[in-house]
Here is the input.
Amino acid sequence: MNMTKTFDYSAAFEAALGKVRDEGRYREFADICRIRGRFPRALHRGRDGEREVTVWCSNDYLGMGQHPKVLAAMHQALDEIGAGSGGTRNISGTNHYHVLLEAELADLHGKEAALLFNSGYMANEAALSTLGRLLPGAVILSDELNHASMIEGIKHGRCDKMIWRHNDLDDLETKLKALDPIRAKIIAFESVYSMDGDMAPIARICDLAQRYGALTYLDEVHAVGMYGPRGGGIAERDGVLSRIDIIEGTLAKAFGIMGGYVAASALLIDAIRSTASGFIFTTSLAPVLAAGAVASVSHLKVSAEERTLQQKHAALLKRELARMGLPVTISPSHVVPVIVGDPLLCKGLTDRLLAEFQIYVQPINYPTVPRGSERIRLTPGPLHGELEIARLVSALDQLWTAMTLKRAA
Here is the structure.
């Protein structure tokens, strides 16, 4: 009998999970089924059976995942083409709906071309890592609050990186000044930072990029569809689309589908398309998803109704939360963070919201946000009515008192 001691894999996994549990960060996924045509209502399947709940944490910001035009387009594509795409884009997976969608997205951002990915995460990781490798001696200057996908992309690019303080243009300029003028430089940042809801000073960042010879890489995932006359994001709203070199966006939030993309010059997009392993070796989006996205993007280019109603409801929710003394962060965007400041209390709050008030919202804990700033992140949409907003605020007010949570100063 072989008595050689071997590595205890199970113990290592248990230790890792134990640490997450001890920190109050362990998640149990809720079994949720959205009800077609009745969003934000959904069915929650739990230990006590099935019941209806109201969803307050969806990134389907405008309810486009339920829009009749989107569903009709997806049904048509499914009937015409079938389910899967059939392969990678380079071999057998390029479908006419992919071509149509890339054209819609390039037009949305005023760029020559766009390139689809299966998620916004993949788009950031592939694009930034490819740029880092293709530009000899490049340095990427990254805002300190950039998304994990941007951080991973920069890391995999194997180029130099510099972190600048969040939205601090003096710090950014100091770092740019220290670099050789002829060195390749990319300034990577977001338009709307999703956990606090603040926005980047895009025009002033573009001024610095122009002054110091840097490319601009803008993540607009929480802004596309939401801002600008045609839903082109904060860059469109602020009139600076032409000054941004690379725009990255998602189809999974305001557009209500799935997927990510980058839009830029035809030359830059061709370079990413031809060399990014995250694009070359991945099966393409199912045509049914691309068809739904085409319908969603084209609708939001001409319809401001959804954006207007969403912004109205977000403003009302912030105002009512503040009126009750709840610690809401008043941001210029649609994001509504309410700070709890403790992971266990945050999880307890969301558990009670679901159990006692049939309100579904997830806790946001480390590493998504810094320790001590744990929160719930509310996402009011055009389909949340004033009565639902009042009900949510009342439930939070009651639980803040019952759980003796800290109110706003």
